[in-house]
Structures are given as C-alpha cells and as structure tokens.
Amino acid sequence: MKLLKRLFIAVFIALPIFGWGQQINLPEDLGTISGNVQVLFQQYNEDSAIGAVTPPEQATMNAFTNLIYRRGKFSAGIRYESYLPRQAGYPNRFAGTGLGYRYASFTQENLSVTVGNFYEQFGNGLVLRSYEERNLGLDNAMDGVKVSFSPLPGIYLKGVYGKMRYNFNDGLINTDGYVRGIDGEIFVNQLKESWLSAKTQFILGGSFVSKYQRDNRSDLVLPENVGSWAGRMTVQRGPISVMGEYAYKINDPSQDNGYIYKDGRALLMNLTYATRGFSFTFDAKSIDNFSFRPDRSLQITDATINFLPAMTRQHSYILAGTFYPYATQFNGEVAFMAETAFKIPRSDAKWNKYGMDIIVSYAQAYNPDTTHLAAADDSQLNGYKTNNFLSPGDQLNYSDFHIVLDKKWSKMWKTKFSYFNFVYNNNVNQGAYFLDGSSVKGNVYADVFIAEINTKLKKKHNLRSVFQYMRTDQHQGDWIAAVFEYSVSPHWIFALLNQYNLGNPDEDNKLHYPFGSVTYVNGGNRFSVEYGKRRAGIFCVGGVCRPVPASNGLTLTVTSSF
C-alpha cells in the first residue's frame, strides 16, 4: 500500500508540471517566473544474487523544484527538495522535505550583490569551488553574502562570506565553520584599447580564502583560522594557450590528513594547441595535503571548500566508465594527462568520403615523492616531508590509455571503435569489490574493447548499437555488454541493455544484468520509465565519486524546464 501511495504522489507531482513548456510571463510590470522540476521515483526488488537489498519502504523518491523570479535588476529564487526517503546510494545526510536553497540578488551597473545561497568558483577551484552535482548527491552551496564588482573594464573583483551546506533534514543545515574569500581577475588586454587587437592575450588572477572553526579538541591545539591563497595566469597566442595556477594553504589538521600540522600546496598546469583538424592538450597537477573543509572532522565529499580536478577523462560507456573510474586523491598525488585529436581529411577514395576522427589519450596518477617522519623526529607533527613537490613517487595509483576511431561511412552509417587500457590500484582507490563484499588486493589490469554503430534507418529514425567486451584477471573476470537504442526524433527513445559476467570464476556468479527504458521528450519536458537490474559500481564526475549499490526494480523520472 505504501508503494502505491508513493507512486501516486510521484505521478501527481509530475503530470501538472509535464504540461509546462515555457517561461511564465507575468504582466509586464510584475516580471517573469522560470524554473525546472525533477522527480525520481524508484521501486526496489530483493535480489540476493546481485547483492540488491530492498529498503524498508520498498520505494524511494528524490524530487526538487527550482523557482526563479526576475524583474529588472532584481532576481530571487528558491529550491524545494524532497527525499522520501533518499535514493539508494545517496548520502545519508538527505532526508525529509523542505527548502534547500534560497536567494535574492540585485545588479546595478557594475555591482552585483547576492544574499542567501549561491554557488561560486575562484579560478580553477583550487581554493574555492561551491557547486552542485545532483547525480553525486553533492551540494556545498554557500549561505551568506556574495559581492561582484568591476571598477574598470578588464578588472573583476569578487568577495564571499558565509557558511557551506552540509546536511538536509526537512530543510537546509549548514556547517558550523565560516568561509571568507576574495578573488580578482585582470584581463590585461582590456585595460587599454590599443591592446585589444594584440596577438598575445594575458589574464592574471589571484584569490585568498580562509575558514574559521573553533578548536573543539581538548587533546590538540588546533588553528581556528586557516588561510589559503592562489595565483594564476593564462597566456594565449594564436592556436596556443598556456594556463597555470598555484595554491598554498597553512597547516590545517583534520580527519583527512590524520591531524598533522603540515602545510598544503597544489599546482595545476595546462597547455593547449588547437588548429583546424588537429589539437593537442597536456595537463599536469601536483597535490600535497590540500584537503580544505569548513569542518575538520568531515570526509569524502562532505562540505569541501575547494575542488581538485582529476587528470582523467570521464567515460560514458558502461564497462569503461563504471568499473574503474578514478577519484582525485586530495591528500597527495602527482598526475599527468596528454591527449591529441586529429582528423584524416576526406578524399576521393570510396572508404574516405567523409574522413575520420582519431583521439589518443594517456593519463597517469602517482603518489607524491615523500618521506615518512618517525615518531621520535621533532617534526613528527608534520607527518611526512615532501622530497620534490613536482616529482611522482614510486606508487602508481591509476593509468588510463585509450584510442577512439570515429568515422562516418555514408549518410546512413557511422561507427566508433574504442580501446581502453586501465591500471587501477585498488589499495588506493578502493572501488573493486567482489559480490561477497571482499576487496581486490593490489592492481587491477583491464582492457576494454567497444564498437558503436549508428544506423539511420529512415528520416528521424536512428538505431544505436554498442557492443562492449572487458578482459581482466584480477577482479570478477571478463564481461560483455550490449546496448540497443532506437530513437524516433524528436520525441521517443527506446533502449535495451544487458551486461553479462561471462568470465567469473564462480559459476553461480556468472550473472546477467538486463535493463530496459522508454523515454518521451516534448520540448523542455522529459519522461522516462526504466526497469531491470543495475550492477554495483562507482559513479564519478570530474574526479569526485560515490559508490552505486546494486538494484533491481522500476524507475520513473520526470524533468521539466519552464
């Protein structure tokens, strides 16, 4: 009976919204209202074979509604959220129904002021990135005041002061600590009109962010105010762009680093060359004890002040993307990634009428080059010393090599062939488990082969077929997967998916994971019905990850923008 009630509530909420498709225009003197809605309803079945557990409620519902009002220079908005209860695998800090976000903003010429909740990023986010990633259950929105000001053309200043979102229990709950920051950015060529047309363009920036949290430990003397700063520069000339940002943080003992008193550093660099038919990108970073939170006792993705991007690509194919993705090791890593993309020009040859796109990418992440300090050492409170900030240590955390061949053969046929090679150190990443819950020891080596075929059957009708094979000896053995997606533009998408663990050494664990979905799209509205088995795995966005538990059941999703 509870299940029927929850299903009725989800449909009741969704159907009126589903009819909206555009911004609501009030009488001219009253402004406009816009927003978006999402309702995610899941019903669960017990499935001991795949490790799927049914919650006591047998169903969950995540829902939110954003409403934004604008009139002239003024805007205000709210977000109403519901977790009745939260989706399986979501952080356990989400419960109940209430307001999770509210703000008011006013803009006057070159000055903007926002009070309430807001998202903000300084530079690349090394010292401050407040953002939301709903699929991860991550939301560290700030709650306070933000001021943006441009005193002169080319000079942009920002300041923030407030708390960060940590919890939701019938409404927004913030951390105890305060976060304060200022950021400045100078587009040098905009300072003088004659510089605007210069071949070389310069952008300079700098940030300072500090946090305050009272010393709540009787056994330690903890810094209550912790400051960090960052400087950055971007230079662009023709097809070449070079960017670098360096950040420093004073000692910040926390649960993340075992309450050591070592300072923290972070460096991010990027080189890009792009011209017609060819591009090359090289990224490098070094992270040393750079966890930064308003509450020193928190861990994982809870209330992070800053963001440390991963030097790896986020793959969309199910076998390449959900088994061995990489999460940034914010306490310490040295990582590199190089990627080149080029196009073989079309020619008169029959096979090359449309040319071909090729992407080759390689990424590695290592532990930093450090030396542990013995307990008898006077510097033991630092925990360790960094031998060379820019040099990798002797432990490989992760590597990802992949090559993609993307080719159109005719107006009806298009293919994409991909190969991936992963080295996944599970002692560090802790994402490779067996069905009995035990963990893989050491490295996992995996090869993934993928063939994607897109067939245009007739006008507005397309069939996408994806065949995947993964070979590995260290984890659950070899896997195969197939996806068939039939779309009738612009409204309908039908999909079937199956994964099969054909190489599992345990015959009882050679399992199938069938899954099907139907999606209807109409303008800004989207409605989907899904049913089947989902394999336990890891879901990552930009180097931030969360585990996804195995499940078996029905999912209804409704989204609408107006």
Provide a quick synopsis of the model:
This protein is mainly beta and 562 residues long. It has 3 helices and 32 strands.
Task: Kindly state the number of beta strands.
Answer: 32
Radius of gyration: 25 Å
The number of helical runs is 3
**What share of the residues does DSSP label as strand, in percent?**
over 45%
Gap from first CA to last CA: 33 Å
Tell me, what's the shape?
Answer: globular
Q: Structural class, please? A: mainly beta
On the 0 to 100 scale, the average pLDDT is: 92
Q: What composes the largest sheet? A: 26 strands, mixed
Share of residues in helices: under 10%
Low-confidence stretches: 3-21
Describe this structure in words.
The longest helix has 17 residues, at about 1-20. The protein has a 26-stranded mixed beta sheet that branches. It has about 550 residues and is mostly beta strands. Mean pLDDT is about 90; it is low at about 5-20. The protein is built from three helices and 32 strands. It has helices at about 1-20, 320, 425-430, and strands at about 25, 30-45, 60-70, 75-85, 95-110, 110-120, 120, 130, 130-135, 140, 140-150, 155-170, 170-175, 180-185, 200-210, 225-235, 240-250, 265-275, 280-290, 330-345, 355-370, 385-410, 415-425, 445-460, 460-470, 480-490, 490-500, 510-520, 525-535, 535-540, 545-550, 550-560. A hairpin with a 6-residue loop joins strand 1 (about 25) and strand 2 (about 30-45).
